[in-house]
Amino acid sequence: LEKLSADMKSEDKEVVSAAEKKYDEIDQKVTDAVKTYILNNTTKQSAAKLLYDFRYSLDEAAQNEIIAKADSAFKAVPNIDKLMAHLDVLKTVAVGKKFVDFEMADPNGKTHKLSEFVGNGKNIVLIDFWASWCGPCRAEMPNVVAAYNAFKAKGFGIVGVSLDNNAEAWKKAIKDLNITWAQMSDLKGWSCEGAKLYGVRAIPATVLVDQEGTIVARNLRGEELAAKLGELLK
What we know:
Elements: H1 2-7, H2 13-40, H3 45-53, H4 60-69, H5 72-75, H6 80-92, E1 103-105, E2 111-113, E3 124-130, H7 135-151, E4 156-162, H8 167-176, E5 182-184, H9 193-197, E6 205-209, E7 215-218, H10 222-232
Parallel strand pairs: 3-4, 4-5
Antiparallel strand pairs: 1-2, 3-6, 6-7
């Protein structure tokens, strides 16, 4: 992995591409091996520690499967209670559930409820969790802008929820990234109350809500988002 990490910094794009592919393959094998070990050892504290260490690699379904099999000693390992609480939050905002409302200010300081934009019987709405300081968010934003421009006339809306701390940086990013839809933030960074309600631990993160307020998809990006909108807004 160290050798591949070095190759990923090469000037040769082919070398970089090959290294990234190989790195991802090895990373997936490690994750699969860890998952198998944990599922076969749900009474061992070592497995519980591995679950917490690999919480960003193991998907929600895998984590729920593990917790369902785990015994009390496994669950007593430090931080497993936090992981279980996070999984419980995700269940409240899973696909098929009603969206959870919250209240925050727009860039001008005026307070709005999420329900002003979502579940009003009119539009399918993407709740987009992002921040001006987030590189992957900025890289993804052209895709979000393209989807908005392609589908807004058919009944698609977006509301951005920023995990910014700095109001001026937030406002500048809105302008620089051509964001023309509603924005909300409490300027609390990772302590953002809205993000907590939706179990957001990495951004960009998205929640797609239908006209009646039911969550129909989570974490769609790029072509996946466009494809889903094409399916829902024929």
